[in-house]
Hints:
Number of helices: 5
CATH class of the largest domain: Alpha Beta
Largest sheet: 4 strands, mixed
Distance between the termini: 93 Å
CATH architecture of the largest domain: 2-Layer Sandwich
Helix content: 25-40%
Shape: elongated
Number of strands: 4
Number of domains: 2
Order of helices and strands: HHHEHEEHE
Amino acid sequence: MTDVTEQNRGTExxxxxxxxxxxxxxxxxxPGSRGRTTIADGxxxxxxxxxxxxxxxxxxxxxxISRTFGAVRDRVPxxxxxxxTRGVKAEVGEVQSALDLEIxxxxxxxxxxxxxxxxxxxxxxVERMTGLEVVEVNIAVSDVKxxxxxxxxxxxxxx
Length: 159
């Protein structure tokens, strides 16, 4: 009768456990465990900003003042475009993230429903793309876009 241990031995009398240990010593094993991945706050902010904007009922991100300054900055030649992260602040740890969002909603929508949908969409996108656990998404509704309001367009300083 053949011993189970004998069936699992390699050509030199090695067991599978011994082969795994040797592979790990010479750099084998799971490549995912070799090294660290860090994710910048700005990466999470961009993902969250895009996910929040995808929700019906969200008119804009950020307060009126931040949108006005951002529009002026974006028009200046060589200005940076930060519109994706406007109204989003992320704190990123090694395995968790927390987010603060400031949104403007369309008039007539349920703020509670829009907030729930934004929270769900942001959590799904951030967790799927980064692998981080989102522990909280705080949402501040800073304004309501009325149908008759025109979008605030700052006066152009450069012609």
